[in-house]
Structure formats: structure tokens, C-alpha cells
């Protein structure tokens, strides 16, 4: 089975080697969408003081201890370490509406890759990892645990759900499934969790916004929105095709009724609504596509190099 169409457990396990060179926490490079407090209020884990040592090039000048520097005659800086207990909860959309793709992979595959990368990255950081997986057949909850076995269970469940999508009939994207999953996530989180919502741009509505806003008051929420090039812009005419959402069948013709202009405009408006909603709630929204694997896209979005070999750890 091609993992670009249906993500396999083996392909998601293999992503543990790609889960580096990016972080969903605060203190990002200035090129990251998570950098700065205006775009995000990512708290990260709490910080505990470790030691005072000599200043090194690249150290944050805000951490210079001026009293210690005056006593020793050399510039001294305070070193902090992050607390190691920060639960990460993945809310993952695996509805049939995501089983679509025209370039490198399906949206389902990129969604699963993104969630797997976040799971491995969180585990590497010493965090507990949990998930709320949802599709047309209901919700599956995984309580957070700090273990490789817990991540493997989540990846296995995502792979199994994705495999079922290949045989499932198409259905339109409905907000009900997303909102039910968000309510389940809201009931699970307490304070200072990282909540990562991974899906496409179609299902969210005002109710989704309200639930996310409540969670974002005491937790860090990040959205990864996956789209396909065909959703962003139709190829230039002349051509015709047939499309269905499982309920309706329609003829696609970019020259008919201004469809060629309506599709990119509609998608742009949808992304703008998601971004504006995220900004008002201080929730970063990371748009990625099906044109290439998720890992290099996340590294670019989060301010690191496209190849993990180019990133200093």
C-alpha cells in the first residue's frame, strides 16, 4: 500500500527520525510562525534555574546576570532548564472528506504525518502524548502517557482509520464531528497542555472557534491546516471533470459560471477566516499542503532548515 495515499504504521514509525529541527513551544527563531508574543502566547514548560556560567556567543542577553558579572569581572549568564512534564494532545481529523489529493499525497497522509511528527517530537522532549482521533465513525480517545508504546498505539490507530477510509464512500465535511472531538479534548485537558489540532480547512465553524477559545485560555493551542492544490486553484481551462462529496455530483468546468475564480477566492476566504480566528484567540494556524511530505513543511513553518541534517540540536 502506498503510504502517500494511505499512511501505514511503518511509514509513521519511520518519521521518528524526521521529528527534529522544529518545536511547537516558545522561543522560536524569528522566522517561525510561533515566534513573538503577538502571533502566539505559547507558554512552553515552566523554567527552573540550573546554574550561572560564563556567557557564550548566542546566549540570550536577557539572561545575563549583571550582579554575578560585576563580582567576577566576566559576563555571566543564568541557565534554565525546562520542566519535563507537559502533556501534548493531538486532535486529528480522519474523516472521509480528507481522503483526497492530487499531487504528492492525500490530505489524510499529510494529516497523519503531521500528527506523527508532533507525537515523536513531544516524546523526545519528555512529554506525555495523547490523542483524540475522529472520523465519520466516531471518536477514539487516547489518554496521555510518556512512553514509546503510547505513541505506537496512537500511530496504529491512525493507520487503521486511514486504511478504512480507502473503502469508505465519500461524505461532505461536517462540523459536527470536529466539534464533538474538540469537546472531548476540552474535557481531557486542564492547564498548560499543548493541544495540536490537525485537519483540513473545511469543518470548522463558530462553535469550533468557541471551544478552541476556551481551551486556549489555559493551554497552548496550535492548528495545522492541510489543503490540496486543487482546492486552492483549478487548472486553467479547457477541461471538464466530475466531482462528488458523497451526497451530490457535479460537473467541474473552470470556464462555467466563473468557477475558475470562485474556487481560489473561496479557499482564500476560508483560510483568512481561520487565520483571523486564530489571531483573535492567539492560536497559531500553520497552513501546509499535499505537494510534499509534512516534515520539511513544518520545519520551514517553524523556522528551521528543510533537512534535519542541517539543524544543530
TrEMBL record:
Positions of the DUF58 domain: 51-237
Originating species: Neoroseomonas marina
Coiled coil: none
Protein name stated in the entry: DUF58 domain-containing protein
Protein origin, superkingdom: Bacteria
Secretion signal span: none
Amino acid at each position: 500500500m502506498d503510504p502517500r495515499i494511505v499512511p501505514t504504521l511503518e511509514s509513521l514509525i519511520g518519521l521518528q527520525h524526521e521529528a527534529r529541527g522544529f518545536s511547537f513551544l516558545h522561543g522560536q527563531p524569528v522566522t517561525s510562525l510561533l515566534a513573538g508574543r503577538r502571533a502566539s502566547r505559547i507558554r512552553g514548560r515552566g523554567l527552573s534555574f540550573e546554574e550561572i556560567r560564563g556567557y557564550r556567543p548566542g546566549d540570550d542577553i536577557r539572561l545575563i546576570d549583571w550582579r554575578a558579572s560585576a563580582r567576577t569581572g566576566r559576563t555571566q549568564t543564568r541557565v534554565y532548564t525546562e520542566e519535563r512534564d507537559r502533556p501534548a494532545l493531538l486532535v486529528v481529523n480522519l474523516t472521509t472528506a480528507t481522503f483526497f489529493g492530487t499531487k504528492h499525497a492525500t490530505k489524510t497522509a499529510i494529516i497523519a504525518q503531521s500528527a506523527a511528527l508532533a507525537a515523536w517530537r513531544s516524546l523526545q522532549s519528555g512529554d506525555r502524548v495523547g490523542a483524540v482521533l475522529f472520523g465519520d465513525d466516531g471518536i477514539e480517545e487516547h489518554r496521555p502517557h510518556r512512553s514509546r508504546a503510547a505513541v505506537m498505539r496512537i500511530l496504529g490507530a491512525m493507520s487503521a482509520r486511514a486504511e478504512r477510509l480507502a473503502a469508505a464512500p465519500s461524505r461532505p465535511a461536517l462540523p459536527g464531528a470536529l466539534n464533538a472531538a474538540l469537546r472531548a479534548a476540552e474535557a481531557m485537558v486542564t492547564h498548560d497542555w499543548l493541544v495540536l489540532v490537525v485537519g483540513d480547512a473545511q469543518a470548522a465553524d463558530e462553535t469550533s472557534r468557541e471551544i478552541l477559545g476556551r481551551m486556549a485560555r489555559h493551554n497552548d493551542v496550535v492548528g495545522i491546516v492541510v489543503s490540496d492544490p486543487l482546492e486552492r486553484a483549478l487548472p486553467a481551462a479547457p477541461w471538464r471533470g466530475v466531482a462528488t462529496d458523497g451526497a451530490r455530483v457535479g460537473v467541474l468546468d473552470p470556464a462555467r459560471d466563473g468557477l475558475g475564480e470562485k474556487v481560489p477566492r473561496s479557499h482564500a476566504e476560508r483560510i483568512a477566516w481561520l487565520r483571523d480566528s486564530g489571531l483573535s484567540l492567539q492560536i497559531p494556524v500553520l497552513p501546509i499542503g499535499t505537494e510534499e511530505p509534512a516534515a520539511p513543511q513544518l520545519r520551514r513553518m517553524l523556522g528551521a532548515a528543510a533537512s534535519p541534517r542541517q539543524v544543530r540540536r
